[in-house]
Amino acid sequence: MTKPDPKKFIPLKAQWFHIMLSLAGEEQHGYGIMQEVLERTHGKVRLWPATLYGSIKRLIEADLIEESDERPAPELDDARRRYYRLTALGRRVLDAECERLQELVRTIRVKQRMVTQ
């Protein structure tokens, strides 16, 4: 069985990128993802519930994230929460997208230097 090519998902939709980046360090529940994105982007990106949960559904269908069976201690958790994590494919796709964005930034910097000379 061949592994899916991560580049077929590139470029990622902005909301997918932000959700996946939120899951890069740890498993999170939906509200945690929304808050992390809002904080990380200094309020510039807000994932409304319909956008977030629609994107989560599509990310699961694409095998980029999955629902986690692991739960925090009951006193730190709410039984209604669902936790999500990146799949192995999701991690490869996120890495490929980050590489693409870094190359884009390098290109911009070269162009900016050319303009200021």
From TrEMBL:
Stored Pfam families: PadR
Domain Transcription regulator PadR N-terminal: 21-95
Highest taxon above the source species: Bacteria
PANTHER family: PADR-FAMILY TRANSCRIPTIONAL REGULATOR
Name of the protein in its database record: Helix-turn-helix transcriptional regulator
The species this protein was found in: Candidatus Acidiferrum panamense
